[in-house]
């Protein structure tokens, strides 16, 4: 495969300032591979990064952006023997070190030297050796690049569901109607979980209703949304478990309010560093609420996500709502935009 000398890459310069730059096409070193991007998906994290930067994903300025991607192997570095040029692959955006305190406890998402990969909004991306070894996967011909790129967010959602450990017949309250909410909805159906959704965007709530929500409640228009929701869950007791997929202190507090005694709360949506929330300690202690956070994914969960997508257990309907060309990236990330769309596929 003949490679060009230069390529396009979206880079972050400052809050709400990105540029589509021309940069040299990198050559893979030992153990590395070069992937020609087939599709990259937008993500809520990308929109947050666009607005304010990111402490883990933006390591230099200007820095590349975008982390949900798939494509075709364009070049292989020395020593790469498990792959061939021309194969279709999905790229995980991280790899743990396998040696630190947390890796030795199999808590790979807490790795003290977790290597991240950013730069999906580009013509090509260089995949480092560590990720090639544990988080680069072949995809079948029937799985298109748009759908394959869902592996990263799906792996994160699978991480949350494993921690929640849902049982068939349980009830779930889902806070958040965005892309992650859609994936949680599909997993709830697979696990035989009954669920309701709470959110602010009426179109996104309608989308969740079409995906099987028993009820949708507007946090902006409905009167007493907490009381309405609890009345629908276990005869007024509250949900067996709540997924908070927004990442705001008020919805963290709301998540605890929606949970029945003995129930579980998964704080999936991350708040800004230093954020504090107020919780009723009576409920935590005397009603034995189980509260926990979840972050990122692991190589095992990423591989599981690829399997779910390849087998059709999870599909992009109701999730990927359109395509944009890389050249039109400024139409996707716009200054002053307050709401994020469902996922868009960025095609070079």
Which structural class best describes the helix and strand composition? alpha/beta
Classify the fold: give the CATH topology of the largest domain: Quinone Oxidoreductase, Chain A, domain 1
Largest β-sheet summary: 7 strands, mixed
Provide the domain count. Answer: 2
* Strand proportion: 25-35%
Shape: globular
What is the annotated CATH architecture of the largest domain? Alpha-Beta Complex
Q: What is Rg?
A: 21 Å
- The percentage helix is 25-40%
Q: What CATH first level of the largest domain would be assigned?
A: Alpha Beta
Assigned CATH superfamily of the largest domain: Medium-chain alcohol dehydrogenases, catalytic domain
What distance separates the N and C termini? 17 Å
Q: Helix count?
A: 11
Query: Low-confidence parts, pLDDT < 50 over ≥5 residues?
Result: none
Write up this protein:
The strands form four sheets. Strands 3, 5, 6, 9, 10, 17 and 18 form a seven-stranded mixed β-sheet that branches. Helix content is 27%, strand content 27%. By secondary structure, the protein is an alpha/beta fold. The protein has two domains: 6-150 and 316-347, Medium-chain alcohol dehydrogenases, catalytic domain (Quinone Oxidoreductase, Chain A, domain 1); 155-293, 3-Layer(aba) Sandwich (Rossmann fold), CATH 3.40.50. The protein is globular and about 65 Å long. It is built from eleven helices and 18 strands.
